[in-house]
Every structure is written in C-alpha cells, then in structure tokens.
Design brief:
The protein has 246 residues and is α/β, with parallel strands linked by helices. The protein has one domain (4-240): Metallo-dependent phosphatases (Purple Acid Phosphatase, chain A, domain 2), CATH 3.60.21. Helices cover 35% and strands 23% of the residues. It is built from eight helices and eleven strands. The chain has helices at 17-28, 55-68, 87-93, 124-133, 136-143, 147-167, 170-173, 177-187; strands at 4-7, 36-39, 74-77, 95-98, 102-106, 109-113, 191-194, 201-207, 210-216, 224-229, 235-240. Helix 1 (17-28) packs parallel to helix 2. The longest helix is centred in the middle third of the chain and has 21 residues, at 147-167. The structure holds manganese (II) ion. Manganese (II) ion binds at residues 41-42, 79-80, 115, 117, 196.
C-alpha cells in the first residue's frame, strides 16, 4: 500500500539551484510511488503571478507535470510567499489547489491541512500584512502591474520579511497554542499537518481530553524534508540529503 507524502517550505529560488534539483529528483523518484503528494505552501520563495516568464516556474512546472501525468494526485495549499499561485499555473502543472484549513482523510484519519501562518496569532504585524495582501482588491491591483514592478515589490517584501524575522522574538514567530486548539476544534479533527515555522516536529497534545497530534514540516533551505504517512497512519518525518551532484 502506498504512502502519502507531505512537503512544505521549499522556498525554491534561482539562488539555490541545488534545492530545485533535489526537488526534481524527489518528484521523479519516491513521489512516483506515493498515493498522493501534498505541498503545504511556500513551494516558491516568491510568486509574482502565474504570468511570470522566468525560468524557475517553467522548470518546476515541467517536473510537477511529469509526476501528475503518472497519475499521482498533487495537492497545493498556498503559503505566505506563493499565495498568488493560481488556477493557470495549477492547470499547467496538474496541481489541485486547496483552501487553507482543508480537511482530507489521510490513511483513514481526518486531517487538517494548513500552511501554518494563520496559527501565528501573536505576530500582530505579520497578521496585518497578511490581511492586506490577501485582499481581493489588493491582489487585482498588484497583478495588473507590469512584471518588473511586481518583481521590485517582491524584492522589497523579502527584505522587509527578513528584517521583521530578525526583530521579532522567537516565541512570537511560533504558533499560538490556543489558535492550534481552536483550529482543530473548528475542523472537528485530532490531527493537524502544517509548515511555515521551519520547526519540524511531531507534537502530541491533549485536546478536550483526547490525544491529538500536530505535525510540523521542515524547510528545504539546505536539505530536503518530508513527512511520510503510511496506510496504517504511521508517521515518518525525515530529511532528504542533497547529493554532491547538485
Ligand atoms: Mn511560510
């Protein structure tokens, strides 16, 4: 029986070609045997629109399409970097777009799937920024700008994000435990899988007197990382070593 695979926070970028290669090998290798692949946000470091004519989106589209064409379903939840990834790129690659906080039954267990940024409720500055850029009017106005202007905005946003990360206490950048409990309760489930914080772990917790789990996926800055869920629900959260060939 096939496993279900979860990844997030690859932050694919022209500056880390070896990570793009690692992801291509993952898609052409172990992902071929998966029951499904879930990408829970921040696949790309930046996303300025599906009409971006840069080389990286096209390269990644070819690799995703090759996997989709073998019949492996690929699901995508947007992250805080690639929330503008839309229907056009999904059609090109074979991705199925999911709303944040979707429940899918994984290995017989209803599982809440999120990027994770909405759980970081202690970071008020980020949540204000998020509300702005997730607004329909803001997005339409942004996407109406020429590609060069959008690239310049994305570059400024990255600098701002780095400064914010440096200036914000670690504890504020992690999930809020009340927000986690509220999300699980609202969904009526006892298992949550998310990314975003780059703090890979399997947390066991108690929710209203019942055991629950929160699985945090790892980032792909210097290596790969993925969660495997076996048909019986067994969890394996592991790194994928980069190869010297890059
Ligand atoms: Mn993120």
């Amino acid at each position: 029986m096939a496993e279900t695979l979860f990844v997030s926070d690859l932050h694919l970028d022209e500056s880390r070609p070896q990570i793009t290669s690692l992801f291509e090998r993952f898609l052409a290798g172990e992902a071929r045997n998966a029951a499904a692949l879930y990408i829970l946000g921040d696949l790309f470091e930046t996303w300025i629109g599906d009409d971006d004519d840069a080389a990286l989106p096209a390269r990644v589209a070819r690799a995703l399409r090759a996997l989709a064409d073998t019949g492996v379903p690929i699901f995508f939840v947007a992250g805080n970097r690639d929330f503008l990834l839309g229907a056009e790129y999904a059609a090109r690659t074979g991705l199925t777009l999911l709303a944040d906080a979707t429940v899918h039954v994984i290995a017989s267990q209803p599982t809440l799937l999120m990027h994770g940024d909405t759980l970081c409720t202690d970071d008020a500055a980020y949540q204000a920024f998020r509300a702005q850029v997730r607004d329909d009017h803001w997005q339409r106005a942004f996407l109406a700008q020429p590609l060069d202007a959008r690239r310049a905005f994305a570059a400024r946003a990255r600098v701002g994000s780095r400064q914010h990360t440096r200036a914000t206490p670690e504890v504020l950048m992690d999930v809020n435990t009340s927000a986690v409990a509220a999300a699980l309760r609202a969904a009526g489930v006892h298992r949550l899988i998310h990314g975003h914080t780059h703090r890979p772990a399997i947390h066991r917790l108690a929710l209203d007197g019942r055991p629950a789990e929160r699985i945090v996926l790892g980032d792909w800055y210097t290596q790969g990382s993925r969660l495997r869920v076996g048909p019986g629900g067994r969890l394996a959260l592991e790194n994928i070593a980069p190869t010297a060939a890059g």
